[in-house]
Amino acid sequence: MPATDLALLVEAAEKAGDIACKYNGPDAKRWDKPDGAGPVTEADLEVDAFLKAFLTSARPDYGWLSEETEDTSDRLSDRNVFIIDPIDGTRSFAEGSRTWAHSLAIATDGVVTAAAVFLPQREMMFTAAQGAGAQLNQSAVYVSRETELTSATVLTARPALDAKHWKSGQPPAFRREYRPSLAYRLATVAQGQFDAMLTLRPSWEWDIAAGDLLIREAGGHCSDRTGQPLRFNNATPQLNGVLASNLTLHQNLLAHLNPDGPGLAPL
């Protein structure tokens, strides 16, 4: 990873924020993607076009994977790949909420090495580079030290509490909170604001890649729903759910999960 990769992502994220914030979310033109894949707005598309032009001109030998760009197999032969969600939390953006984010990552040989998650309307820039720790607005952040599930606050959607996902037929007695952006959920766990994040749905790589590195560099552990390490730039760019927290809490949650529980529809 070139030493300047993180600086490039930060610059791109800041410029993306300038573009997105030109729009008033509720007034932005909006479409529904085919096959129930969720909404997209004109802001998503403008940010995506900018990021692709800006980032690939700076790193022409890096592959490209983005939620709003038609995927091709070309990236599979690239050692380094940009993994981008131009606006993570499009529904929130379109509703006028401030909890949407730009999620930018670079994966090298399937492992994320640089990441930026930027919430421009909250002035929060989360960053991480492999081996250099995780930061919020240039100050170091660390995952929570909470180890007891009964005292933990877990960011997860309500369907994850369904009995079929848990060995005992019910989830442990943790407190549940929710945030609409997966990238933001992971970032808030990396900063220790919440103790864990759990999604049992098949999850798109662009929602998770940047947050995976934030968690790991903040001293935490990030895996799929079965405990396997996350690998990126897959032919089908989806992961088998995500579990993120400090290592002890991760192990405690994993011990309660039913590894054979049915997945849910993709986000």
UniProtKB/TrEMBL annotation:
Listed CDD domains: CysQ
A family per Pfam: Inositol_P
Secretion signal, residue range per the UniProt entry: none
Source taxon at top rank: Bacteria
Positions annotated to bind Mg(2+): E67, D85, I87, D88, D207
Keywords, comma-separated and alphabetical: Magnesium, Metal-binding
Gene3D superfamilies the record matches: 3.40.190.80, Fructose-1,6-Bisphosphatase, subunit A, domain 1
Cofactor(s) the protein needs: Mg(2+)
One BP term from GO: phosphatidylinositol phosphate biosynthetic process
GO MF entries: inositol monophosphate 1-phosphatase activity; metal ion binding
Family: Belongs to the inositol monophosphatase superfamily.
Protein name per the record: 3'(2'),5'-bisphosphate nucleotidase CysQ
Species for this entry: Tritonibacter litoralis
Lineage: Bacteria, Pseudomonadati, Pseudomonadota, Alphaproteobacteria, Rhodobacterales
